[in-house]
Amino acid sequence: MIRQPIKSRWILPLGMLSVVVLLTAYTVLSHWQHGRNPDDTTIPTWRQLGDGVTKMWSPNARSGERWIVVDVRATALRLFLGLVCGVFGAIVLGLLMGCFAWIEALLAPPLSLLAKVPPTAALAVFFVLVGTGREMYVAMIAFGVLPTLAQSVYFSVRDVPAEMLFKARTLGASQVELIWNVILRTILPALLDAIRLQIGPAMVYLIAAEMVVGDVGFGYRIRLQSRLLNMNIVYPYLGILAAFGYLMDHALRQVQRLACPWYAEKEG
Amino acid sequence: MPFPIVLECRNISHWFGANRVLHDVNLKVVRGEIVAVVGPSGCGKSTLLRAIVGTHPPCEGRVLMQSAQGGCERPITGPGRDRGIVYQNYSLFPFLTARENVAMGLMLDQTDLPFRLLRFPLWRKMRKIHLEEAEALLGRLKLADAVHRYPHQMSGGMRQRVAIAQTLIMKPEIVLLDEPFGALDEATREELQRMLLTLYLENCGARQRNEPPPYTVLIVTHELNEAIYVGDRVAGLSQYWDWAKEGFHACPGATVVYDRQAPVYLPDQERSYETFLKQRREIRHAAFEPQVLQDRETFVRFWEEVRAGEGRGVLS
Q1: Which domains are present in chain A?
Q2: Less crowded by CB within 10 Å, the N or C end of chain B?
């Protein structure tokens, strides 16, 4: 029946069942493929995957660095810097647009257009403007998430009920206090949600850029190893990306739960 | 004039393009009164209230305030801490608990942002005092159990009670209530009405001791019973008046067509339905009947009554 609830003790086993089915299917598939071609690397066996992980972890013969360490360092720093710049810029722009009608009139049209340009398509623009160093990745992520994020901040600011602002002014709030003590506090949970939703796109932009021009980082490594059909390296890298995205998501949810206890409960 | 005026609306007119809403509205509110403003829907009650709050200044005319210390009347220039407002919704900040909501005004009024950030230890000490003060007030309004609850965890009646506390803690010259109990069920509504009458009782006590009454209230409502019960004075705003006689070819907007005293009740007193019915009929006749167009002064008799020494409650 539609929307028929199930017993809560069934939820965990069912979730685990699907994972087990996936892993079993993979094992069977890989076994079957290796039956046809013992040297296959496209669907590596568990042993091959283990070799791949060992390779990622062991120091490189030439540089003495471990792949995974240099890649995580490079990619995480780019992503972090890009997100920080993008989120900060978006908050400032969104707040200004939501608060001041003339800034709104000035910036709303270009922003709604820019939000529709795929940053991956605009990659060349960033090469030309800031070269191919770390700045390029940071700029790409920042400008990639900024329009959408600024728009959602702007919409949430606009949705703050006017009565609430009037009320605050009858309590003696100054203009700065309206923004800091009323508007920011009201939009904080929606802002955290919006940031959470932008982590995925930010990773897409970064990996794409790294695939095209990178000499280190996740995108670079995945592209290189897929060319060599070393899927025993590619799959663990994808797994790390998935785990990272999930952890960021979870962490932001926790922040929201702690910083806005009123919101989580209200939304159920 | 023996009765000090808190708020005066002087010749207020308002229009939105060709749509004339208010025409030459005059209203003087005496300190300690509970004035109920009623009128048919669309008569501009809310427009008048917004003009008084200061968020939407009138096209013509002025709103003047006078403080308890006397001094000259000053025209208002926007929302200010001398006028508290309670809306039907959105009066409370959803991200603050009841006591934080009530303490918000003390915080905004007594400190500013640089102070709170730079002198944090001192601010924390003040904050503690603010919260205690807020809790004390909430306790007086029978909300002692709810001090730590967020607005969404409270019933509609509790929320409006907290909203009133949030306003009262600022000790404003006048409290403005915009359809405050419109979304509440009958029992809760009556409970809150009785709470307003308790405040009025304090006013009468202060008046007897020759002190300035602490609470002045202007309540906009569409419920005639509520207006007569809670208010010691009912002002009717209506577009149905004899404008043709004043030389207009079309209705220039709603104006004050009814202004009389209303019976004064103690919080736990039985209402007399006879007086109620009589006044209801009179108000309906003056303000709510589209066919009845009469001189707008016909039922504006409040000051006449006061001058004749017929004042009740704080006006006695």
Answers
A1: 77-267 (1.10.3720.10)
A2: N
Question: Which of B53, B81, B104 is closest, CB to CB, to A166?
Answer: B53
Other CB atoms within 10 A of residue B107 CB = 22
Residue type, A248: M
ipTM: 0.91
| Contact indicator for A30, A45 with CB cutoff of 8 Å | yes
**Which of chain B's residues have a Cβ under 8 Å away from the Cβ of A167?**
85, 87, 90-91
Residues of chain B positioned with their CB less than 8 A from the CB of A161: 89-90
- pLDDT digits over B9-21, tens only? 999 999 999 899 9
Is A39:A227 a contact under the CB 8 Å cutoff? no
Chain B residue numbers with beta carbons less than 8 Å from the beta carbon of A186 are 93-95
Question: What is the C-alpha separation between B89 and A157, in angstroms, rounded?
Answer: 18
Question: How many separate helices (H) and strands (E) can be counted in chain A?
Answer: 12, 0
The alpha carbon of residue B51 is apart from the nearest alpha carbon of chain A, in Å, by 12
Interval B214-240: pLDDT, tens: 999 999 998 899 999 999 999 999 999
| Torsion A221-A226-A228-A234 (CA) sign | positive
Q: Å from A164 to nearest chain B CA?
A: 6
CB–CB contact B53 A181 (8 Å): no
pTM for the predicted model, two decimal places: 0.88
Q: State the Cα–Cα distance between residues A173 and A165, nearest whole angstrom.
A: 9
Q: Are B172 and B82 in contact (CB under 8 A)?
A: yes
